[in-house]
Model the fold of this input.
Amino acid sequence: MKKTRKRLTACGWFWLTYIGSMVLLSWVLYALFAPNTAHARRNHHEKWYQQAWCSEHNGRTEVVLADRTRCDCLTSSHAIEFDFADKWEEAIGQSLYYSLQTGKKAGIVLILEKPKDMRYWIRLNSVILNDGLDIDTWMIGPGNNK
Done:
């Protein structure tokens, strides 16, 4: 028995192309407009908190170091990293690196935007205490219940 191949008619090609383009369009629209939970909406940008806190503590913001990295805030005694509460782990490494580059004491200002962000404050300070890290910490933001 001989197998015959069916060819798509013009109408068949149209629908195949149409469906394919709709799938592609759906993916593009999803990528553009789907909410990105990794960078959830913030009350303010990190820079807003940096400027407010750093000026209050007579520091300079975005100081360019010898290796072209930028320290968020440099005071007479501290090299300080600012981060949102859910990025507390990153703040530890960056503050220690800024301290190494400047010869100043490491510091972290943790931005708490919601009361439940306090759990990150506890985690940050637990690691610092447990590992004997020489890092001073401060909190800022509306989630700060102090």
Observations:
- The CA atoms of residues 22 and 28 lie 10 Å apart.
